[in-house]
């Protein structure tokens, strides 16, 4: 993947939004494996990784049949990457839990959001409601 991205990574270093578009496209295409590899390549090449990039990858896990373990794993790694979770990342992780049949975890995550200084929005509540 690193070889295939080549010059793209250099461009992303100057314009991180370009990476967000690519990662969002991989999420829509239900390619979380590839999205995670792109994220790793970005970190290897010292390209800025932000919460929007990670939210896209979490969304890819959600869209690909609710890979809740991977979604929660990435959400849990955000602080180690010096990133704070946002409502989009939490909503995608809640939805991944729901699609994976883990409604209790979805509700726990929803309940943890205020402790993360996040106010659940209609997407978070909708994802939690769908999980049940």
UniProtKB/TrEMBL annotation:
Asked if the record carries the keyword Repeat, the reply is yes
Highest taxon in the source lineage? Eukaryota
Write the record's keywords in alphabetical order, separated by commas.
Repeat
Q: Does the keyword Repeat apply?
A: yes
Kindly give the PANTHER family that the UniProt entry links to this protein. OS03G0856100 PROTEIN (PTHR47447), OS12G0638900 PROTEIN (PTHR47447:SF17)
This chain belongs to which protein, by name?
Pentacotripeptide-repeat region of PRORP domain-containing protein
């Amino acid at each position: 993947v690193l070889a295939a991205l080549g010059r793209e990574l250099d461009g992303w270093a100057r314009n991180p939004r370009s990476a967000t578009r690519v990662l969002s496209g991989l999420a829509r295409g239900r390619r979380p494996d590839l999205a995670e590899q792109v994220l790793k390549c970005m970190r290897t090449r010292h390209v800025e990784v932000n919460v929007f990039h990670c939210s896209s990858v979490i969304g890819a896990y959600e869209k690909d049949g609710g890979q809740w373990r991977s979604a929660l794993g990435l959400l849990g790694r955000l602080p180690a990457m010096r990133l704070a979770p946002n409502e989009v990342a939490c909503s995608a992780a809640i939805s991944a839990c729901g699609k994976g049949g883990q409604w209790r975890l979805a509700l726990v995550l929803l309940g943890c959001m205020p402790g993360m200084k996040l106010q659940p929005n209609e997407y978070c509540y909708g994802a939690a409601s769908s999980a049940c």
